[in-house]
């Protein structure tokens, strides 16, 4: 597994600043959202509680409330300005709750969630054991986890262009589908199914892509990034390298999207420990009933 660490405070700050501009640039996010909602067809029960992790401006939360009108829908995001913006999508007829929290520390009771939905959020979390462990904690046995995230080929053209200018990380790195799948299994999630899709968006010039990334809040938050301003000469070298990739008078940008779903395990199902062994967890109450006198 590729090891890297994200600055979570910077992630929160970037998305907070992008709250007002996000929906001007979220064409891809809406497309991926539509495909992700199709995975919810696998869940054939009537959910009582649905959570949208990394809800952003709340478009997905509103769609979830529209689909599950009788359920309690909760929009969770680590950036408070995003949740303030999300209020515009929460109507008095179909309201959803907004909670500011991190995906690895959800303020919800154990086994209290029927459907956990997350659209293009998990790539901003580098602690996969903590992330999927929290998903297992809050999901009811048989509850559905459905999410999308970016894969390592995302923005490969921009990454290659920057490599022509210097050796510093200017583009966020993303984990491979196999690493994500392994982390899901290690956490104890049942029957994970993962698929990869590639989208290519085109722009009139590289600067338009950079403006879009900034408008989305999707800028580099790698802790190993270079601090300070990028020199003008290096920036110009990057632009020139990207211009050389122009196809049919347009600048391409690849987005590798991993879409997945899995099921909450039964209480007590073993999960893999860090040492390769298996760990099973039971509540004290369930053990009390089986103790011999």
Please describe what this structure looks like.
By secondary structure, the chain is of the alpha/beta class. It has a domain of 182 residues: Rossmann fold (3-Layer(aba) Sandwich). Helices cover 34% and strands 22% of the residues. Strands 3-2-1-4-5-7-6 form a 7-stranded mixed beta sheet, sandwiched between helices. α5 crosses α7 and α6 crosses α9. The longest helix has 13 residues. The mean pLDDT is 89.
Q: Given the helix and strand composition, which structural class is it?
A: alpha/beta
Integer average pLDDT:
89
* Share in β-strands: 15-25%
Profile the largest sheet: 7 strands, mixed
What CATH calls the topology of one domain is Rossmann fold
Looking at the overall shape, the CATH architecture of one domain is 3-Layer(aba) Sandwich
Relevant CATH superfamily of one domain: Vaccinia Virus protein VP39
Question: What is the straight-line distance between the termini?
Answer: 48 Å
Number of strands: 9
Q: What is the topology, as strand order, of the major beta sheet? A: 3-2-1-4-5-7-6
Radius of gyration: 20 Å
Extract low-pLDDT stretches: none
Overall form: globular
Helix content: 25-40%
Q: Number of helical runs? A: 10
User: What is the quaternary state of this protein?
Assistant: single chain
Sequence-ordered SSE layout with sheet pairings:
Blueprint: H1 8-17, H2 27-39, E1 49-53, H3 59-67, E2 72-77, H4 80-86, E3 97-100, E4 113-119, H5 128-138, E5 139-150, H6 156-165, H7 177-187, E6 190-203, H8 206-216, H9 232-243, E7 251-263, E8 271-272, E9 278-279, H10 284-288
Parallel strand pairs: 1-2, 1-4, 2-3, 4-5
Antiparallel strand pairs: 5-7, 6-7, 8-9
């Amino acid at each position: 597994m590729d090891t890297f660490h994200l600055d979570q405070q910077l992630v929160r700050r970037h998305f907070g600043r992008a709250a007002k501009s996000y929906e001007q640039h979220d064409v891809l996010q809406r497309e991926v959202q539509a495909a992700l909602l199709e995975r919810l067809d696998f869940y054939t029960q009537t959910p009582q509680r649905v959570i949208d992790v990394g809800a952003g401006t709340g478009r997905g939360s509103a769609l979830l409330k529209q689909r599950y009108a009788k359920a309690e829908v909760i929009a969770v995001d680590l950036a408070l300005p995003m949740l303030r913006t999300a209020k515009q999508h929460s109507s008095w007829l179909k309201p959803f709750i907004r909670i500011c929290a991190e995906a690895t520390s959800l303020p919800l009771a154990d086994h209290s969630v029927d459907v956990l939905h997350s659209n293009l959020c998990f790539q901003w979390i580098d602690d996969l054991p903590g992330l999927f462990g929290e998903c297992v904690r809050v999901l009811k046995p048989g509850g559905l986890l459905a999410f999308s995230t970016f894969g390592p080929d995302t923005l490969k053209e921009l990454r290659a262009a920057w490599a022509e200018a210097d050796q510093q990380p200017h583009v966020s790195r993303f984990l491979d589908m196999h690493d994500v799948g392994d982390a899901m299994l290690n956490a104890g999630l049942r029957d994970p199914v993962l698929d990869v899709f590639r989208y290519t968006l085109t722009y009139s010039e590289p600067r338009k892509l950079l403006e879009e990334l900034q408008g989305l809040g999707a800028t580099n938050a790698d802790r190993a990034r270079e601090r300070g301003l990028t020199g003008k000469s290096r920036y110009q070298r990057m632009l020139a390298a990207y211009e050389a990739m122009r196809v049919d008078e347009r600048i391409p940008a690849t987005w590798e999207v991993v879409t997945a779903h899995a099921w909450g395990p039964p209480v007590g199902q073993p999960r893999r420990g860090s040492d390769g062994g298996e760990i099973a967890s039971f509540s004290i109450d369930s053990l009390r009933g089986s103790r011999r006198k």
